[in-house]
Structures are given as structure tokens and as C-alpha cells.
Here is the input.
Amino acid sequence: LGPRQIEAHIRALTEHLIAGLHTLGLQVVTPENPAHRSGIVTFSAGADASANVALMNDLLDRGILVSVRYTSGVGGVRVSCHFFNALDDLDHLLNAVEDCCRCGSHPAP
Here is the structure.
């Protein structure tokens, strides 16, 4: 594909994910400015790490691979978008996050 096409694809994925997270009312920890962003998007589903760890575990149970990362008390659920991902992958993630938040175990902030 080439570096420019890969970069454009990953930027489109992260834009789509960030927009979806905002729609769900979740806090996006990753910088919003594309110039300060990579293919990694971090968001928070609660006021403390335990809410994010619980959400991560629910997503892992659904076969959605995410992690939780914190540095100096800042962080949340970490999603790594790569060139092999598609918008459908992110929609699947967003639907699962919405479902988890709706069921009450991880209420949106």
C-alpha cells in the first residue's frame, strides 16, 4: 500500500473511533489534534481505573482485544488501530462498549 495510504487509513480509523466515543459520551484521553496522535486511541469509561479494567474484561470476553494503560494517573481503555483493521471492527467495538454501558455495569460518565 505504501506509507501514505497506510497513514491515511489509520487516521480515518482513529477519527471514526473518536467520533463514536464522543457520541457515546465517553471521555477521549488521546489528543484530539491529528498532528499529536498515532493509531492508538485511549478513552475512559469511568472516574477510576476499576471501571476501565471491568470494561476491558467485558470486551475481552466478547473477543475484542483492548488493554488498559495508565501513566501518572492518566489513561484508560487502549485501542490500537492498524492498517489491517476496518471501520466494521471499530463499529463492533463501539456497539459492544455501548451495550456494556447500557447494561449498567459501566455507566458512561
Summary: The longest helix spans residues 3-23.
